[in-house]
Amino acid sequence: MITALLLFWPALAALLVLLIKGQGAKKVAFIAALVEFALALFATSQFDSTDGAMQLSLNMPWVESAGISFSIGMDGISLLMVLLTTFLVPLIILSAFKHDYKNPHIFYALVLFMQTGLIGVFVSLDAFLFYFFWEVALIPIYFIAAIWGGENRIKVTFKFFVYTIFGSLFMLAAFVYLYFQTGATGASAHSSDVQAFYQLALDSDTQSWVFWFLFIAFAIKMPVFPFHTWQPDTYTESPAQATMLLSGIMLKMGIYGVLRWLLPVVPMGVSQWDELVLVLSIIGIVYASIIAIRQRDLKRLIAYSSIAHVGLIAAGIFTLNEQGLQGGIIQMLSHGINVTGLFFIIDIIQRQTNTREISSLGGITQNAKGLSIFFMILLMGSIALPLTNGFIGEFLLLMGVYQYNAWFGAVAGLTIILGAVYMLRMFQGVMFGNKSEHTEAFRDLSASELAVLIPLVIMVFWIGLFPNTFLSISEPAVNNLLSIIKR
Amino acid sequence: MTSIILLSLFGIVNLFLGFLKSKRIMLPIVLLFLIVVFGVNLLSWNNTQSYFSNMLTVDNFSVAFTGIMVLTTLLLLPFSQSYIEAKDENLAEYYSLLLFSLVGAIMMVSFENIITLFIGIEILSIAMYVLAGSDKKSLRSNEAALKYFLMGSFFTGILLFGIVLVYGATGTFNITEIGAAQAATDGLMSNMFTLGLLMMIIGISFKISAAPFHFWTPDVYEGTPTLFTSFMSTVVKTAGVAAFYKLMFAAFAASYATWFPTLIAITVLTLVVGNIGAAVQKSAKRMLAYSSISHAGYLLMSLIAFNERSEASIFFYSLAYSAATVAAFGVLQYVENNRGGKNFEHFNGLAKTNPLLAFVMTVSMLSLAGIPLTAGFFGKFFVFASVLEDTNLMWLVVIAVILAAVGIYYYFKVVIAMYMQPAVSDEKIEVSSSASFMLIFITVLTILLGIAPALVSDIL
After folding, report:
1. Residue A377 CB: number of other CB atoms within 10 A?
2. Which of A31, A108, A412, B290 has the smallest count of CB within 10 Å of its CB?
3. What catalytic activity does the UniProt entry give for this protein (chain B) (predicted)?
């Protein structure tokens, strides 16, 4: 029941927000998002983290003729994703308080509506329900980015939209195909339940193409090299909040999709193609890092760094060992937190200086001590310094990749060095040196900005120092997953 | 059967209403007629009966499709407001022609005899030929009527040849007996029969504007006054596809292997031509014309699947498609009349002046594109599901999926114009309250079916 409440509360709140004209909408939206976070915490307290099975489930018929049931529930992996989403959304709404978006009630309603889509993706236990929410999450973010975005937004977001739908339609085709493979031969015995998909025993040729149908959808969403071309432009042109939603939460949909709907469903397909996926991911890491070094625009730089980070997560997950998977999951949390924080700081800088060009900035440390500290901490998290969250994730991931193939591990390890290069270069250019005309009158953080950054930084250290809080939640689920894959 | 009689009567009564001075009263009366017909039609549910020594059969299939078609007409009539305001002299005739056309459409979904099918198609078509040319002073409208009429008669001829050849080979017009005749020979029929079958397929493909018999569609749709285009692309298409399905299922099931290659070629071609054609249009109306071709392709997919899911998926798809199309043409009509054109750029900034129209149009476009939360998604889903029951047809679904992504491209052009482009005019478009009510009703229906498709998907 609590899972259904988690799922529908944001949508209900969105309808409520729609009715509120003017700037009061953001306050209501913020409170609604906080309530959602409280619900998620309550769900966590009800959750038995020693059990790897699905919990807090709810199963009701939905479209019986097509075998679709409204089946939701969570295991440790889902729970962590739900926690991440519910933790970040209120902060993202709070981060928009300084903006005066036109038609605020629509803007915040769309954010909340998207949250329902995101939670739905993470808790769906029915393939078609999953697909349903997968698309439901896309529509609001498209409108947020395309209506409130930058100059080039229309073309860029359109590419993003068509590109991702193109991928997901393949996923739908694969799901329909898999659905007809379940059960005995007989029309009524089919099921689109996740467990029924796990029990499928397809021959390896079939698994091979089903793998690609599913992988394309997830790879575009993450995005994995060479499916990433929509991402830098979309991140750059979207309003800051949309960028945070896209990078902080939405790309996790892709990774989560791999964990829940790809690896256990077509393990033989995975074993045929995992090497290629690892190679692609690792190419992506190095390629995106090198491009990031050359970027002059702050947002683009972080966008490329995000491709690099996600490349490592994808590589780790496809190693199919416990370190890789656990590292991937913890890194999803860390990346969500760090990248949201970084995009927020870029937003603060841009709002005050009207520029994102590194060369036009500089000397911000002199005026804004507070901002510098928070920026530095999030940066360190991003380049995986020990004691921060990034370290735990990247360490586990690299360990996983190393076990798979030592050479792959070595090349993937470049991410740490290259990451330090572009991040520190950026920090240097923006924060140190002489003040420019744009940064002359820079003000330090305001109370509402602090309210966003403090929880994020707390999480950076919490995950960095006590990763077991989170690792222990996902561990039984990961072992469960591995036992299905290795069956 | 009662609905056919009632509609014919109402059509004649309506002609006499043309003598009334007040044009305003006509619309409520026609709407009332249609509501009565809709209700009477439902009375035949679960009550299969044959009429006129097996010329017509009213069963759940025909009741369901009659329901869609009457409902669609009911939904699109309030958009005739501009005719009422212009005090158009021929309004009563237009309404009557629509009602007569509906009679033909109902005959097409309840035929038991190929002759009834033929008569139904003709009643439907002749009324449409007239309506296509109803804007007498417009060159485009005249062109549309002439083109539609010439091409239509030509293909009617082909259909009739087909019927005669099939009759020659089997000795009967009754569809059940035609089916039995093939079963008796294990589907090995004479060349005459095969030729007749193919000619019938070609004749009906023309009516549902399936490629390569679609060439008339964009010009005719564009030239015809929008109100009647809306009728053409919904009721005519629904009737055509339902008749096609019934014909193939009842009469030619045993010859599946014979017609399957032809029909699959037609389907793939229709999907490609419709979607690619729509993607390059500048005019929203022409885009909708090509989109109606592409939807004929999706509908044909579930006909090809030819299994127990086909019927329900055609039903659901027709309903979802009709609802969204009526709303789209309704909004288009307002834009056309008030913004001086029907290109994409005439939609610019509509969200600022008329949020309701923009929202309705967006939901329709999402539904036509098949995006979740709208009825169109489940329409596509049921179609794909019925095709994939035979996993050898995976390639067809892949083609359809790629073309569905192309579909999103052109449907979103409208959405982008409405929400993201600066307005062409600050003037608010006045929408009559009955039309607003219908637009809201369609939107709610589209979203409701997108969330709870089981409300109607299981009835057949």
Report:
1. 20
2. A31
3. a quinone + NADH + 5 H(+)(in) = a quinol + NAD(+) + 4 H(+)(out)
Cα–Cα dist A445/A406, whole Å: 45
Q: What is residue A357's three-state secondary structure?
A: strand
Contact A131 B372 (CB under 8 A): yes
Query: By the 8 A CB rule, do A398 and A410 touch?
Result: no
Q: pLDDT tens digits for B59-78?
A: 999 999 999 999 999 999 98
Helix (H/G/I), strand (E/B), else coil: A72: strand
A461 within domain boundaries: yes
Cα–Cα distances in angstroms (integers) from residue B412 to residues B194, B217, B364, B368, B440, in the given order: 43, 22, 11, 10, 20
Cα–Cα distances in Å, from B188 out to B183, B254, B258? 9, 9, 9
Q: Is A202 on the interface with B (CB under 8 A)?
A: no
Which chain B residues touch A128 with a CB distance below 8 Å? 381
Quote the mean pLDDT of chain A.
88
Mark whether A235 and A91 lie in a shared domain.
yes
Rounded CA-CA distance B73/B103 in Å is 12
CA distance A59 to B356: 36
Mutate to test the interface with B, among A128, A141, A153, A176 (most CBs of B within 10 A): A176
- Residue A185 pLDDT: 55
Q: How far is CA A419 from CA A53, A306, A416, A424, in A?
A: 37, 10, 5, 8
Asked whether residue A110 is domain-assigned, the answer is yes
On whether both A119 and A241 belong to a single domain, the answer is: yes
What would you measure as the largest C-alpha separation in chain B, in angstroms? 69
- Identify whether the C-beta of residue B289 lies closer than 8 Å to the C-beta of residue B359: no
Q: Which amino acid does the sequence have at A223?
A: P
- Structure-token match 């309030």, residue found: B78
Q: Is the pLDDT of residue A184 over 70?
A: no
Q: Same structural domain for residues A339 and A387?
A: yes
Instruction: Give the list of residues 6+ apart from residue B372 with CB closer than 8 angstroms, or none.
Output: A131, A132, A133, A135, A136, B450
B257-276 tens-digit pLDDT: 889 999 999 999 999 999 99
Of B382, B391, B405, which is closest to A66 when you measure between CB atoms? B382
> In 3-state terms, chain B is what percent helix, strand and coil (to 5)?
80, 0, 20
Q: How many residues does chain B have?
A: 460
Domain that holds residue A154: 1-165+225-255
Please list the residues that pair with A63 across neighbouring strands: A68
For residue range B224-249, list pLDDT tens digits in order: 999 999 999 999 999 999 999 999 99
Residues A374 and A295 in one domain: yes
**Which positions in chain B touch A180 (Cβ < 8 Å)?**
385, 388-389, 391
Say if B456 is an interface residue toward chain A (CB within 8 Å).
no
A247 and A359 together in one domain = no
**More confident call, B390 vs B236:** B236
Is A193 part of any domain?
no
Q: Is the same domain home to A235 and A279?
A: no
What is the residue extent of each domain of chain B? Answer: 2-457
Angle between helix axes A389-404 and A298-317 (nearest 10 degrees) is 50
Place of tokens 């794909």: B384
Contact A63 B378 (CB under 8 A): yes
**Beta-carbon separation of B373 and A147 below 8 A:** no
Among left, alpha and beta (phi > 0; psi -120 to 50; other), residue A68 is beta
Asked whether residue A69 is domain-assigned, the answer is yes
Render pLDDT for B28-66 as a digit per residue (tens, 0 to 9).
899 999 999 999 999 888 888 888 888 899 999 999 999
Write down the pLDDT at residue A87. Answer: 94
DSSP 3-state of B57: strand
Distance of CA B311 to the CA centre of its chain: 16
The dihedral sign for the CA sequence A115, A119, A121, A127: negative
Number of domains in chain A: 2
Residues A240 and A333 in one domain: no
CA distances from A41 to A2, A34, A397 (A): 11, 11, 27
